[in-house]
């Protein structure tokens, strides 16, 4: 696929850029987007950057009916020196292909798509906000476009990448949230699609989220779909606990989404010689740790918030107030180091960041 080049059609007009203090998550999009088509027998073809605009898609396109689609989420950051960088983008593209495999979507050329993303980010670089904690969110996704309402894998697809400037997740400092343990609905089960980043998992999560919000909670803690005994994830984040000096996180079991942030947190903790263990964690043992006074911290991890401390965890008649409702030391260090590396304020000993510049854009 080396002979591929991305054709660029520049937008004739430039949209007004938002003020950085008014940025919300995911409501505004930049001037351009990347598109590539798949059809048989050609495969993926016609990679192009075009002005951001609505698509024309047949109402019978398969994606509208049976949810054969996948997506990714990563960010571009400005460093204090004015460099643009991405955080472990290769991990997102590998995961996109794992999701593709689960959803019977043909694989993409990871290196080529990463190049295309860099080219798009560089072209729309004026949209990367520069104030503290802001970034440009990158959303690659694939939809099945064959006009056919039979249940089968599509023979046609579109890979699209759109960009959205996003504000600081923590405007008034990193704040612990209230979480409700969900013991009615489940997000995913082993053998299902929980490991894949696919829209259906999110559709399945909305009801529980809506109900917990009505009760004043920020998110739900998901339990396993079979016994509803073991902890899986928190909202759309992976989850960690610090118990008696040890950091624990649910082991990947076929229904948990493997986060890039989760992987980075595990590597950082090992680098700091803090014991970190991936294992099955039951709600009962967590409660026991709380009663014994050894549950020291709890936090979620994901690209959007990076680290989201949990100050309260509630279910049935139980309310666990973790670390006095304050952000724990480990959560705080992880947040500072990860964002430090992402924004280029701190040395990156792992080779996690990748620069986006003129050369990465030229093919
Ligand atoms: C995307 C996602 C995560 C977090 O993944 P990151 O790569 O760290 O952003 C965790 N859980 C679910 C269900 C997700 O969709």
TrEMBL record:
It is an enzyme of class 2 (transferase). Its cofactor is pyridoxal 5'-phosphate. It comes from the Bacteria. One of its GO terms (biological process) is L-valine biosynthetic process. It catalyses: L-leucine + 2-oxoglutarate = 4-methyl-2-oxopentanoate + L-glutamate; L-valine + 2-oxoglutarate = 3-methyl-2-oxobutanoate + L-glutamate; L-isoleucine + 2-oxoglutarate = (S)-3-methyl-2-oxopentanoate + L-glutamate. One of its GO terms (molecular function) is branched-chain-amino-acid transaminase activity. Pathway: Amino-acid biosynthesis; L-valine biosynthesis; L-valine from pyruvate: step 4/4; Amino-acid biosynthesis; L-isoleucine biosynthesis; L-isoleucine from 2-oxobutanoate: step 4/4; Amino-acid biosynthesis; L-leucine biosynthesis; L-leucine from 3-methyl-2-oxobutanoate: step 4/4. The keyword Transferase applies. Coiled coil: none annotated. Its EC number is 2.6.1.42. The keyword 4Fe-4S does not apply. InterPro entries: Aminotrans_IV, Aminotrans_IV_CS, Aminotransferase-like, B_amino_transII, BCAT-like_C, BCAT-like_N, BCAT_family. Keywords: Amino-acid biosynthesis, Aminotransferase, Branched-chain amino acid biosynthesis, Pyridoxal phosphate, Transferase. The modification N6-(pyridoxal phosphate)lysine is found at residue 197. PROSITE patterns: AA_TRANSFER_CLASS_4. Belongs to the class-IV pyridoxal-phosphate-dependent aminotransferase family. NCBIfam families: ilvE_II (TIGR01123), PRK13357.1 (NF009897). This is Branched-chain-amino-acid aminotransferase. It comes from Oceanobacillus picturae.
């Amino acid at each position: 696929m080396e002979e591929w080049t991305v054709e660029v059609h520049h937008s004739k007009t430039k949209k007004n850029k938002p003020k950085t203090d008014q940025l919300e998550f995911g409501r505004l999009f930049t001037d351009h987007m990347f598109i590539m088509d798949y059809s048989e027998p050609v495969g993926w073809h016609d990679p192009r950057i075009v002005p951001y605009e609505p698509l024309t898609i047949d109402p019978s396109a398969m994606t509208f009916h049976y949810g054969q689609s996948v997506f990714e989420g990563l960010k571009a950051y400005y460093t204090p020196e004015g460099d643009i960088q991405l955080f472990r983008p290769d991990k997102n593209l590998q995961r996109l292909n794992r999701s593709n495999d689960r959803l019977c979507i043909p694989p993409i050329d990871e290196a080529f798509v990463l190049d295309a993303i860099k080219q798009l980010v560089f072209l729309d670089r004026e949209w990367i906000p520069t104030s503290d904690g802001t970034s440009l969110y990158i959303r690659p996704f694939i939809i099945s476009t064959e006009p056919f309402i039979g249940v089968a894998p599509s023979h046609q697809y579109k890979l699209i990448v759109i960009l959205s400037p996003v504000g600081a997740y923590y405007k008034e400092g990193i704040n612990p949230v209230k979480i409700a343990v969900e013991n009615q609905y489940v997000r995913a089960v082993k053998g299902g699609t929980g490991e894949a980043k696919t829209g259906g998992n999110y559709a399945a999560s909305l009801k529980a989220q809506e109900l917990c919000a009505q009760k004043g909670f920020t998110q739900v803690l998901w339990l396993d779909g079979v016994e509803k005994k073991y902890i899986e994830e928190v909202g759309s984040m992976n989850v960690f606990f610090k118990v008696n000096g040890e950091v624990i996180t649910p082991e990947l079991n076929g229904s948990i989404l493997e986060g890039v942030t989760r992987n980075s947190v595990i590597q950082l903790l090992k680098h700091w010689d803090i014991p970190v263990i991936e294992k099955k964690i039951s709600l009962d043992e967590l409660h026991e740790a709380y009663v014994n006074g050894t549950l020291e911290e709890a936090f979620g991890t994901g690209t959007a918030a990076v680290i989201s401390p949990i100050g309260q965890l509630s279910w049935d008649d139980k309310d666990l107030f973790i670390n006095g409702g304050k952000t724990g030391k480990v959560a705080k260090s992880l947040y500072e180091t990860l964002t430090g590396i992402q924004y280029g304020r701190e040395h990156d000993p792992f080779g996690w960041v990748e620069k986006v510049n003129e050369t990465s854009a030229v093919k």
